[in-house]
Amino acid sequence: INLTGNSCTACLNLPPTASISGTGTICASQNTTLTATGGITYAWSSGQTTAVITVNPAVTTTYTVTVTGTLGCTGTATKVVTVNNVTPGTVAADQTICSGGDPAAFTVQVAATGSGTLTYQWQSSTTSCAAAFSDIAGATSATYDVPSGLATTTYYRRVVTSTFNGVPCTANSNCITVTINNVTPGTVAADQAICL
User: Fold this and answer.
1) Are 159 and 142 in contact (CB under 8 A)?
2) pLDDT digits (tens, 9 = 90+) for 74-104
3) Residue 26 forms beta bridges with which residues?
4) pTM
5) For a Cys-Cys bond, which of 18, 25, 28, 125 suits 167, CB 3.0-4.6 Å?
6) Which pLDDT tens digit goes with each residue over 25-61?
7) What does the angle CA 185 – CA 188 – CA 190 come to, to the nearest 5 degrees?
């Protein structure tokens, strides 16, 4: 209330309407940008003082911003950033077979985990455990049985996808190597005739 001479003026300063926009679900180790509106200055629970901040939480985290309007009143808003964690688990096992043989089915040693619904895709490579993987059609179970007839050393891995709040996050399992033990018989010589 301001008093000037014989007059009295009352001013009602409504608090600003604070809001936060930005992605609410991210994969582990990803960044997301949060944007606050509604004021002229901003103070975040994470310590930043700009309207737009970039965060990289390791776990699901709630961010609060306090915005200050032109007349000094404040308002607050919160935003939960959910981290969709996924671990690929462990599959087994390396093996050696004869060319054209039938590898033993791959099994789960440690189960995959994730914040959301888990799906699987097996991949193979004939290059190495580090490159040139491609999806195996129809191989979408937690385990996989390679068809018989394998003639080339081949590398396998399982891609695990956790889908949470519509956001898919993936992780690759360990690599399984199926080594082909090639053997060639060579030739022996020679036909011959002998006297009786």
Assistant:
1) no
2) 999 999 999 999 999 999 999 999 999 999 9
3) 83
4) 0.82
5) 25
6) 999 999 999 999 999 999 999 999 999 999 999 999 9
7) 160
